[in-house]
Design brief:
This protein folds into 2 domains: about 5-25 and about 285-410, Lyase, Ornithine Decarboxylase, Chain A, domain 1 (Beta Barrel), CATH 2.40.37; about 100-280, TIM Barrel. The protein is built from 12 helices and 23 strands. About 30% of the residues lie in helices and about 25% in strands. The structure holds pyridoxal-5'-phosphate (PLP).
Amino acid sequence: MNEILTIGGVSAKALAEAMGTPLMVYDQAALEKRLNEFKTSFVHSEFETQVIYASKAFSCTAMLELVKKAGCGLDVVSVGELEAAKHADFPMREIVFHGNNKTPYEIRTAIEYGVGSIIIDGAMELDEVIKSAVQLRKKTPVIVRINPGIEADTHQYIITANIDSKFGVSIYERECILGMIKKIHDCEYLEFQGIHIHIGSQIFGIDPFIAGIRKIMEFISDIEKAGYPVNVLDLGGGFAATYTEKDMPLPISLVCNHILLECKNQKDSLGVSVGKIMIEPGRSMVAEAGLTLYTVGFIKQTANKKYIFVDGGMSDNIRPALYGAKYRCDAAEKMNAPKTEKVCVAGKCCESGDVLIEEAMLPKMEPGDLLAVYTTGAYGYSMASNYNRLPLPAVVFAKDGKARCVIKRQPYEDMWRLDTDTQINL
Ligand SMILES: Cc1ncc(COP(=O)(O)O)c(C=O)c1O
């Protein structure tokens, strides 16, 4: 008897039959558990704390409702993400607005909507924020993003690396940063809240976070000696998710404890006034709760490999092609069958690089079989495209044996919905 994969108590086969493939399926209870885990772990008796979900990882109304219900804030990077939050009735005061090249329109909209903070990414942006806040006569809280000169890359971190990052103002540009903070203080429509850093993504250990905290707290001490109290320290995201068996992130409660402990130690030893600590997890909040179901099409044996072609690919998951991301998979209707074949799982897009998994062990697969690729919950749907005019997949949330569609499959008509032939009056 073939064992069938279930998600949230719902059979993958039943979901695929009802919704078609490719299909993104989230275990809703896993999403709720993770949100709650972050929220309850990131607390400290002496700091106000805030967990901000980085909505770039995966955003839709149903997801934003879960985030709101869990009492977490939201990180948005564009007016598109901000409007999605507004549509979901997300409280604007709980939103931080990021981005290295916010347009004047985005800045004005963020101020008008009354977001909790605008994260200022550079000196030129600050001038634009001042201009808009003064014009709108609206007091706007801001945080300055500093590139701390620490780059965390999975298991490692490198001090003084990445000084050329496109994000934030380099910590080595002290005078520029102090000048920016002075400008903020001098503007009656801005409120200086504090400092932001983000040191990387898919960080497994604690050391990179500790290094980042030490370096930025010292810098904060310097800023405060120059006469500018810093209330907020936002440490960004970057917490790892488990994609393959090689990935072993530490429990999030442990990471949160260490982070807050180090913040407290640094606060005490340096005598800084920081009173609120924020984090912005994206990937680690949603990656493991999601998977993608594909239907196997043709199978091809070449001189050196056996290809299993699926009905999606880089259009719904660009990560393997973009940066060599690794995934695990299973034959969703043959869960107990011995894995006897080494195969290459490739998509249907017109690119040689459209390979989802270079080497996977699977039972013998036939056309029509269902394939589940795990841990696709972060930066999958949000980076999906219509390459080759493939429609975006549907997304479902499954929980307690029931499933609901939270994003419809994109209709083919969408491919030409915006096509037009209209004269432009110049
Ligand atoms: C400023 C900022 N915050 C949070 C995140 C979320 O990172 P992750 O998904 O790795 O947690 C990112 C990712 O790019 C970021 O740039």
